[in-house]
Design a protein that fits this description.
alpha+beta, two-stranded antiparallel ribbon, elongated, 30% helix, 175 residues
Length: 175
């Protein structure tokens, strides 16, 4: 879960939005599965790598061949490189500061992944180390939603001294 949380921090920092497959539409998932099947068959299956550098080198060579040399049926036997267009959206050199409403209850996650709230320590995750999070009251005065930027990530239950992670289960039909 820690790796997923680190990815979430990066996605939120860049102000990226999720683009998930549409309900009852498997095209996107099918493309991803096809890519993974091809990667496995052409590069990974039955192979042991001596070290990470060798693995990276072979992956880089495979990616170049896959995108620049290998014809793709879905592209009328063109290569993906012939159809690629760089995004017009610039990548920021410096990320904008995270801001929360003026009246928000903000805590900074310490290096061990903990926050202090009402003189108690609660463990979130070291993936959020150094990040500011917001605590929002719920209808229950002893429960608080924990937000990282605009994303609800957990529910803090004060008397139980418990943090429960929130999973994203809703998929918009309008993505």
């Amino acid at each position: 879960m820690r790796g997923e949380l680190r990815a979430l921090v990066g996605v939120e920092d860049l102000r990226l939005t999720e683009a998930q497959g549409l309900v009852q539409r498997i095209q996107t998932q099918g493309k991803d599965e096809r890519l993974h099947r091809t990667l496995g068959a052409e590069l990974l299956h039955g192979r042991d790598f001596a070290n990470l550098a060798e693995c990276q080198s072979l992956c880089d060579a495979w990616r170049y061949k896959y995108n620049h040399e290998r014809p793709h049926e879905a592209l009328d036997l063109d290569t993906p490189a012939k159809h690629y267009q760089p995004s017009l959206r610039p990548f920021p050199e410096v990320l904008p500061a995270i801001s929360y409403p003026a009246a928000a209850q903000i805590r900074t996650v310490d290096s061990s992944g903990k926050i202090s709230f009402h003189h108690q320590s609660f463990r979130l995750s070291s993936a959020f180390s150094g990040q500011r999070i917001e605590l929002r009251p719920t209808e229950d005065p002893d429960h608080f939603h924990i937000y990282f930027m605009t994303r609800k990530i957990a529910l803090l239950r004060f008397p139980e001294h418990d943090v429960t992670w929130v999973s994203v289960t809703h998929v918009s039909e309008h993505v």
